[in-house]
Specification:
2 domains, alpha+beta, D-amino Acid Aminotransferase, Chain A, domain 1, about 30% strand
Amino acid sequence: MAMLPFDDRDGFIWYNGEIISWRDAKIHILSHGLHYGSSVFEGERSYNGRIFKMQEHHERLIKSGKLLGFDIPYSVEDLHQASQKVLDANNIVDGYLRPVAWRGSEMMAVSAQKSRIHVAIAAWDWPSYFSPEDRLKGIRLDFAEWRRPDPATAPVHSKAAGLYMIATLSKHAAEAKGFNDALMLDYRGQIAEATGANVFLIQDGKIHTPIADCFLDGITRRTVIDLARQKGYEVVERAIMPEELAKTQEVFLTGTAVEVTPVSEIGEYQFTPGEVTKDLLLAYDQLVREPAA
């Protein structure tokens, strides 16, 4: 089956305040965001025509821009309206949205103080990140060679495009060896996250997750923590070393794209998706599909 490229599709994209044809949404080759990584983005999901946690996503997009030293020229409410226009224009009910903001091509050097900040929002149908079969049986992770950086060396709390370079390298390496994804450690050797999702460990009925001090504190991560506590589970945010996987019974990932996805293997360690993981998977699925109040 041929892959449908993302630059040659029917549909519409919101670009700097206007809905335009998908194929006309282009940037110049000398855009600063392409050469120097001065770009931030969000990943959002629409369920039954409603964008889940839209407020949090658009607030984070604006915050991410500020962490990279630029102001996004649209308000949170502007982004809300634009996202809905994109869904409506493309007749999408269950899909994925990608807002992105970047420095343009007015200046081409490390310094780009006078470059225009561009903003676009695209959306496409996307029912599930991993296949249903993979999700139910648990996915397989390898250990990544690359590590999440020290907060003193990068704007780690921004959803910045440049921070995903090592995620792409790690995922490609894992896939080349037959794995679905990779588990990344941080600069201290502690468990951090997968390449695009946060990680949770179940040990003797308690839920443990790394402190998000050098990687993105995911919106889905916080949602699942809240769900778990509402259900009476104890959730512990702490430093976790990789050798603790030997005493871990269940592992799952969380993220807008992966939702709640069980893990069956990380390197030499094996896990069986159990009751805690299944409980939270079902609770999250129910929450995102609840009708608007």
